[in-house]
Amino acid sequence: MEKKTPLIAPSLLAANFLEIGKDVNMINNSEADWLHLDVMDGRFVPNISFGLPVIAAVTKISTKVNDVHLMIEEPEKYAEAFAKAGANILTVHIEACRHLHRNIQQIKGLGMKAGVALNPHTSVSQLENIIADLDLVLVMSVNPGFGGQHFIEKTYEKIRQVKALINQSGSKALIEVDGGVTLDNSKAVIAAGADVLVAGNTVFSAKDPVEMIRALKHNS
Ligand SMILES: O=C(CO)[C@@H](O)[C@H](O)COP(=O)(O)O
Ligand SMILES: [Fe+2]
After folding, report:
1. Is 1 domain-assigned?
2. Which residues are a divalent metal cation-binding (predicted)?
């Protein structure tokens, strides 16, 4: 089978927040492609992470693509502020958007790539009328809100469904898989159709995070 090299997006949520600059530099000096930044508002998800000032500081030193995953209600209120804070990709949750098409146009109009995230219970068919406009589909493989959870097995089928929709619509969207990705399941996630792997705990709890990023990238 053809070897596919995925893009790797370490999630800063699992970093040591007392030494956040050190961890960003570790990612800068690794084979990671994107830096995944999880924003939680305590409303859309039952947790609060970090917000605009932290992202503005981190993107000043990040040399990777800054991939911001918004787990917030009313993302349209903050899209411009995230663009100014240095987001290169802005992903909103379909479950949080009443006017998704408008939200996507807004993100692109601000000069960012636009992504849509699906919670585990959300069906892929909901993307049918928006897929052609997307740069990224983020498939949640855990319920959003926390790092360190177990990968939901049904996600493999969901990735295949998203891939089929992309192929049939002629969309150029990439598929990013987020939650519980490990060295053990990453091969199967890629084989199902993922282009980008988010990894939080797998990277930051590794003895050698740089080596773990390399291993995830070349494991397919
Ligand atoms: O969006 C989220 C969680 O809601 C993720 O990006 C996690 O931060 C991934 O962490 P791990 O599951 O890889 O530890
Ligand atoms: Fe995320």
Report:
1. no
2. 36, 38, 69, 178
